Amino acid sequence: MESIDPSSPTAHSWNSQLSVLEQDVLDEYARLDENLRTVVGPAPRFLPCPLQPSASLACKLDELANCPTTEIMDGLRQLERKSGLVYTLLKASVYSIVLQQEMYAVDNAETP
What we know:
Elements: H1 20-40, H2 56-66, H3 69-110
GO molecular function: microtubule plus-end binding
Keywords: Cell cycle, Cell division, Centromere, Chromosome, Chromosome partition, Cytoplasm, Cytoskeleton, Kinetochore, Microtubule, Mitosis, Nucleus
Subcellular location: Chromosome, Centromere, Kinetochore; Cytoplasm, Cytoskeleton, Spindle; Nucleus
């Protein structure tokens, strides 16, 4: 595992009693913390979300939090119906293919 460059912004002056591996782990946690703060932090209200790709997760969470529960449930019901329809069509297609293969096998067995 590589150690963090001391000049990098995520490098911290950890306790000198830590091993290199422990320092690397702490540096990774610091980098993860910085990334999460960047992504999940509050998005400024003066710019629309599409202009801020780093804040897209925060925008989506904000949008979901402000969306009424009934709208979310209606959307989930529609998704459930559509996925049920897709599953039914997939089963019918697979059954049709299996049936055709059985018919071809019977036809090939009967012809000398």
